[in-house]
Amino acid sequence: MRFSAALGVAMFILAGCNSGNNDQAAATADSAQAAATPAPEAAPQQPALNDAQIASIAVTANQIDVDYGKIALDKSKNPEIRKFAETMIKDHSDIIKQATALATKLNVTPETNKTTQDLLDGQTKMNETFKGLTGDAFDKAYAQNEAAYHEAVVNAVKNTLIPNTQNAELKSLIESVVPLLDHHLQMAKDLAAKFK
Amino acid sequence: MKKFIQIVAVCFSVCLILAGCDNGSSSSTVESTGPQRDTVIIKLMAFTPDTLTVNKGDTVVWINQDIVAHDVSHFPDRAWHSDTLNPQNVFVKVIDDSSSYFCSIHPTMRATVLLKK
Ligand SMILES: [Cu+2]
Description:
Largest sheet of chain A: none
Distance between the termini of chain A: 53 Å
Radius of gyration of chain A: 17 Å
CATH topology of the domain at 37-115 in chain B: Immunoglobulin-like
Oligomer: heterodimer
CATH superfamily of chain A: Ferritin, core subunit, four-helix bundle
CATH class of chain A: Mainly Alpha
Distance between the termini of chain B: 47 Å
Radius of gyration of chain B: 15 Å
Bound molecules: copper (II) ion
Strand order of the largest sheet of chain B: 2-1-4-6
Shape of chain A: elongated
Strand content of chain B: 25-35%
Helix content of chain B: 10-25%
Number of strands of chain B: 8
CATH class of the domain at 37-115 in chain B: Mainly Beta
CATH architecture of chain A: Up-down Bundle
Number of helices of chain A: 7
Number of domains of chain A: 1
Order of helices and strands of chain B: HEEEEEEEE
Number of helices of chain B: 1
Largest sheet of chain B: 4 strands, mixed
Structural class of chain B: alpha/beta
Strand content of chain A: under 5%
Order of helices and strands of chain A: HHHHHHH
């Protein structure tokens, strides 16, 4: 009970802002969880990730792109970059809403895990890079990162999240995100190509 | 969650209202030759059907069944356009002219409404 409360708090922090210093709390909650629950209850063949972990990855991956979008709105004056960033913020926030609503309905508490942590570590590094850049240099780095990030997320969704998801509704929601991610990836590539 | 249910309820009511007052003043039979109503579903980043053929004066209802917001905008100049349609929102338009349209939020989403000859 106490562990799930701690996880809930960690998850809330992860979903809420990801401003860098939450890594400790998340990592602590993660290892506490690993120690507390040696095996998922009644899992016949153990998937690499359970649905609670997949929900956590989904929310975190979307939140990171919302956060990148906010940085872009903060730093960029380029209208195309700003419009793209606004679309990222809106779309990925919409996905988070749907994922959170479904997790609540299914009684799944998102569970932080190694992949969540890797995503957050990547974000911390990227934020450092963004910090030192302005003007065209920032715009270029943002567009290129959006292309790379969406490519990585599309691959993770197709090859890891979808095959491992057990609940049919959660699987269906994640599958329905793929065409959107493909579209974002294409837009990001087109945008990045303008900053050669 | 509660809000979501409310939105769904509102949309459902809108659909009922739309379905209810279909033929307006002209006729009440199903086989009416008056204005017809057609539906375009917005889902998985696409308008379905992507080409819809209607009679002049028919009404088209776009329903956003996708997981993110979209809009319905005349291509390419947005001469007419819907508001941003959040998931489950609908847009209704009487069609007087053939027209290509797109989603201005996701410009790869493109479709057409054609007038019957
Ligand atoms: Cu759209």
